[in-house]
Amino acid sequence: MFAGISLLIAVSLFRLLPVFMGVTVDQPSWLYNFSPITALCLCGAACLPRRSALLLPLAALIGTDIILSLHYGWPIFNPEFFFKTFVFALVLAFGWQLRSNPRLRVLLPAVVGSSIFFYLITNSVSWLFDPGYVKSMNGWVQALTTGLPGFAPTWSFYKNTLVSDISFTLLFVLCVRLGKRAGKSVPVAEPAIIAPARW
């Protein structure tokens, strides 16, 4: 599982690139929401060793969230944070149920469904708590499609999220398979045969 854990760490560092590069909120050059955290939670829970399957993805999520909030000057603990963490906890639980069959043909549709679920819940929470949205069906549709004026449409954020989730899932499964093959190819020393002593 070394390859899978290494990829998890790499994704966490990738998510913190705006911090390392000094990117601010008003800089549109950063590829917003290209961050496969949903896939990280699902694949981690489904494939990593039991002791780290839930802890590592959750620690990566909460840790990077806190660092990004401090960097951008956002409040750390707000309704969006708690709802988002709750959704990821559900994705972790879903991934845990897939441990008996963590194959690509299972993980790929599961991560697409989890990504859509995350998008619907988090944008609905934004609609509920953001004063910029009218609290009506039209306002909810706006939160799921065009978003607030002055910002890119929310569906474009989701497009980046979905692409990153699918890409990470493919890479994660590939890394896990390569790691297993490398482990099987390591020769195991046969025990030495000791001849019985002659008296």
Tell me what the structure shows.
The protein is mainly alpha-helical and 199 residues long. The chain has one domain (2-185). The chain is built from nine helices and no strands. Helix 1 packs parallel to helix 5 (55-72) and helix 3 runs parallel beside helix 6. The longest helix is centred in the last third of the chain and has 32 residues, at 154-185. The chain is globular. The N and C termini lie far apart (50 Å).
Reconstruct the topology from this structure.
Layout: H1 2-15, H2 17-21, H3 37-47, H4 50-53, H5 55-72, H6 79-97, H7 104-129, H8 137-144, H9 154-185
Helix pairs in contact: 1-3, 1-5, 1-9, 3-5, 3-6, 3-7, 3-9, 5-6, 6-7, 7-8, 7-9
Helix tally equals 9
Amount of beta strand:
under 5%
**In angstroms, what is the radius of gyration?**
21 Å
| Arithmetic mean of pLDDT | 84
Number of separate domains: 1
Overall body shape:
globular
- End-to-end Cα distance, whole Å, is 50 Å
Into which percent range does the helicity of residues fall? 55-70%
What low-confidence regions span 5 or more consecutive residues with pLDDT below 50? 186-199
Write down how many β-strands occur, each being a DSSP E stretch of 2 or more residues: 0
Order of helices and strands: HHHHHHHHH
Structural class: mainly alpha
User: Quick one: biggest sheet?
Assistant: none
